[in-house]
């Protein structure tokens, strides 16, 4: 282990706390361990904020956790074994003392909580002893990791040299696999589309400022578009991003960013740069006008997302009638005719010409929308953070059954337009055979069923959340 005085020197130099520097030091060794002694070393890859700091840039913000991806699955028990192997490696090479009995691996998202349909992530917690305190009074610090299974990338993974800005770098630095820089930045753009987190904006602006013409911005924007539903009219993305609720960034900028004072810039500077860069980023794409009615534009989308974040009701005028609604989801769904558009799922509390209940609304029916300060307790999971993603099940009909003269498109409320569901159904995928199963309750336990595509019973009784149908 390096001398604790080196940690103190780094903390004073960059004007950040010593705990953040200790974690950054441990991060370097954890990455080295995964790519040296873990059986995952040939498939795991680094992504997110620490891929920028540990794979591409010698000095950028400190990220609070490590993000890894793997293309396949792994059990909690097996992953914990790998984590402990990495801890043993670090303890032997660097002298860091881990508290392995406290190490933990668990699913990060419960049913309906995943921000992307079908996302499966393990949250890993690793505990180590503070470098400074005597053994009698030693403090235990935590390192957090997210490991995404079945992770898919669009651009080829890159081999980078691990960046470790400490005196034992010669023992740590080695080749590691990282998500390609252009895809990391494209992912940051997608995050900005769906949430207002200051670190995402910082990473985007810092990367563009630092690299300038070295970055393939055409590859960035095309990868970004490919990750969303807006391929037929990319200019819609520009319009939505341009009207992002930037007040959230200003409010949390200084609270959530940890970086050296030499590279820090203000939220106002970041926003100004970002808005100017949007024009350059989307300049190759004209407004196709392709079915503009299919998407909720920024004037509707911004208040919807705000209401979802704050759990406040919306006052809308829809098809000429004023209503008070609770926001729940914004999904891009396709009819049997091939027509696809976004549907806004709400609970209509009052107004309109029908009783309260779940409704699906389309952009063309809106005359106005207004945020209110009226709070509500969600009846179902709020899934607006998934807006802009392709849902795992995007059809308003059963795509495996051919259309017949007597058949009608399946309604979002039931398999026939005259049938109405009494509440939402939750779709789970069997972890054993992959079959999708609808349930009225949120539980990963599934009942007896036949294997997908056969008449044989499936032994699987556990599933993972896919989506909610209203």
Q: Give helix % range.
A: 25-40%
Order of helices and strands: HHEHEHEEEEHEHHHHHHHEEEEEEEEEE
Major sheet, described briefly? 5 strands, mixed
Tell me the number of strands.
17
The geometry reads as globular
Structural class: alpha+beta
First-residue to last-residue Cα separation = 55 Å
Range of strand content: 15-25%
Q: What does the radius of gyration come to?
A: 24 Å
Key traits:
470 residues, alpha+beta, SH3 type barrels, 5-stranded mixed beta sheet
Please describe what this structure looks like.
This protein is α+β, with helices and mostly antiparallel strands. The protein folds into four domains: 4-179, no CATH class; 201-290, no CATH class; 293-386, SH3 type barrels (Roll); 425-469, no CATH class. Helix content is 30%, strand content 23%. It has twelve helices and 17 strands. The strands form five sheets. Strands 1-2-5-4-3 form a five-stranded mixed beta sheet. A hairpin with a 5-residue loop joins strand 13 (425-430) and strand 14. The longest helix has 19 residues, at 76-94. It is globular, with a radius of gyration of 24 Å. The N and C termini lie far apart (55 Å).
Set out the fold topology:
Elements: H1 4-14, H2 18-34, E1 45-47, H3 49-56, E2 65-69, H4 76-94, E3 104-107, E4 120-129, E5 140-149, E6 158-161, H5 169-172, E7 175-178, H6 181-194, H7 198-211, H8 217-226, H9 235-242, H10 247-256, H11 267-281, H12 298-310, E8 312-318, E9 321-334, E10 340-351, E11 357-361, E12 366-375, E13 425-430, E14 436-439, E15 449-450, E16 457-458, E17 463-469
Parallel strand pairs: 2-5
Antiparallel strand pairs: 1-2, 3-4, 4-5, 6-7, 8-9, 8-12, 9-10, 10-11, 13-14, 13-17, 15-16
Helix pairs in contact: 1-2, 2-4, 6-7, 6-8, 7-11, 9-12
């Amino acid at each position: 282990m390096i001398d604790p005085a080196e940690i103190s020197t780094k903390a004073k130099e960059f004007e950040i706390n010593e705990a953040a520097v200790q974690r950054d030091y441990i991060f370097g060794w954890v990455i080295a361990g995964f790519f040296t002694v873990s059986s995952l070393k040939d498939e795991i890859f680094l992504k997110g904020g620490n891929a920028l700091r540990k794979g591409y840039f010698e000095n950028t913000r400190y990220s609070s956790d490590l993000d890894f991806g793997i293309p396949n699955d792994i059990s909690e028990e097996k992953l914990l074994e790998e984590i402990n192997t990495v801890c043993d490696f670090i303890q032997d090479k660097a002298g860091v003392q881990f508290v392995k009995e406290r190490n933990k691996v668990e699913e990060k998202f419960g049913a309906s909580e995943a921000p992307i349909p079908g996302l499966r992530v393990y949250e890993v917690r690793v505990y180590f002893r503070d470098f400074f305190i005597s053994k009698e009074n030693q403090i235990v610090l935590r390192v957090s990791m997210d490991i995404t299974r079945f992770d898919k990338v669009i651009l080829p993974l890159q081999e980078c040299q691990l960046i470790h800005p400490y005196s034992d770098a010669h023992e740590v630095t080695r080749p590691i696999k990282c998500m390609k820089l252009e895809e990391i930045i494209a992912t940051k753009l997608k995050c900005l589309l769906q949430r207002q987190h200051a670190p995402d904006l910082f990473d985007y602006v810092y990367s563009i400022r630092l690299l300038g013409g070295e970055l393939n911005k055409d590859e960035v924007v095309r990868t970004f578009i490919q990750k969303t539903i807006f391929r037929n009219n990319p200019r819609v993305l520009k319009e939505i991003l341009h009207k992002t609720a930037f007040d959230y960034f200003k409010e949390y900028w200084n609270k959530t960013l940890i970086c050296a004072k030499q590279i820090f810039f203000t939220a106002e500077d970041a926003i100004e740069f970002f808005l100017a860069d949007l024009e350059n980023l989307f300049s190759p794409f004209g407004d196709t006008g392709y079915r503009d009615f299919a998407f909720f534009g920024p004037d509707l989308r911004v208040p919807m997302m705000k209401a979802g974040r704050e759990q406040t009701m919306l006052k809308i005028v829809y098809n000429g009638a004023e209503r008070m609604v609770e926001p729940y989801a914004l999904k891009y769904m396709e009819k049997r005719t091939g027509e696809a558009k976004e549907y806004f799922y709400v609970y209509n509390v009052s107004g309109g010409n029908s009783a309260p209940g779940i409704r699906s609304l389309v952009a063309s029916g809106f005359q106005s929308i207004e945020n209110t300060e009226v709070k509500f307790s969600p009846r179902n999971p709020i899934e607006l953070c998934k807006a802009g993603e392709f849902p795992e099940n995007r059809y308003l009909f059963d795509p495996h059954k051919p259309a017949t003269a007597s058949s009608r498109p399946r309604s979002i409320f039931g398999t026939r337009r005259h049938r109405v569901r009494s509440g939402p159904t939750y779709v789970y995928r069997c972890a054993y055979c992959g079959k999708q199963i609808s349930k009225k309750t949120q539980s990963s336990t599934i009942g007896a069923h036949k294997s997908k595509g056969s008449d044989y019973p499936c032994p699987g009784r556990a599933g993972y959340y896919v989506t909610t149908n209203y």
